[in-house]
């Protein structure tokens, strides 16, 4: 509960570190829903797991407005999903920043950057089939999570290194909460301050590719 940045409950209630300290536990299943429908499925999935520890993180506040299923579907453990197919940039989101990744992809498309957006669903075990495909088929791979350094992105980086997928020309970045305490504010302002908004994701892609900022490019 209260995963990620939480404005209304005060500065002591930000759930920033759970991904880092839970993903290091052997045999752990660790999930993060992107929306309220995904949360229903992950509750069902967690209830069905009886041979190992599991956890799912979810934020405080309202959902994003998607339709809720009548009942949850048990997810395949360690398998993500692709919501948008592209060819140049891959955004691999874990949890609630998926909507920002999709919004960033729309803006990137205006600049001629075809962008894949994937929802990892699981921080552990990782979907190595999905990660491998994203790494091999794109020039840029960026992970996005509302958690501290040492979490999902760090595990993806290690997996890529062990698979030899960092030995070529792939440009990889991990976007996570900065290594500092975020001042209490509205959730939207805190996300912007943390550099995890749709605009920040868009600008990270431009930075990696050595291009001008998106605003400058559109004005040109």
Give an overview in words.
The chain has a five-stranded mixed beta sheet with strand order 3-5-4-7-8, sandwiched between helices. The radius of gyration is 17 Å and the shape is globular. β1 (29-31), α2 (36-48) and β2 form a beta-alpha-beta unit. The protein has helices at residues 18-22, 36-48, 98-110, 128-137, 152-162, 187-194, 198-209, 214-219; strands at 29-31, 54-56, 81-84, 89-94, 115-119, 122-124, 140-145, 171-175. Helix content is 35%, strand content 16%. The longest helix has 13 residues, at 36-48. With 220 residues, it is α/β, with parallel strands linked by helices. It has eight helices and eight strands, in the order αβαβββαββαβαβααα.
Q: Topology of this protein?
A:
Layout: H1 18-22, E1 29-31, H2 36-48, E2 54-56, E3 81-84, E4 89-94, H3 98-110, E5 115-119, E6 122-124, H4 128-137, E7 140-145, H5 152-162, E8 171-175, H6 187-194, H7 198-209, H8 214-219
Parallel strand pairs: 1-2, 4-5, 4-7, 7-8
Antiparallel strand pairs: 1-6, 3-5
Helix pairs in contact: 3-7
Shape descriptor: globular
The biggest sheet amounts to: 5 strands, mixed
State Rg: 17 Å
Low-pLDDT segments: none
- Give me the side-by-side strand order of the main sheet: 3-5-4-7-8
Which range best describes the helical content: under 10%, 10-25%, 25-40%, 40-55%, 55-70% or over 70%?
25-40%
Report how far the terminal alpha carbons are from each other.
Answer: 44 Å
Strand content: 15-25%
Alpha plus pi helix count: 8
Strand tally, please? Answer: 8
- Quote the average pLDDT: 91
Counting helices, strands and paired strands, the structural category is alpha/beta
Q: What's the order of the H and E elements?
A: HEHEEEHEEHEHEHHH
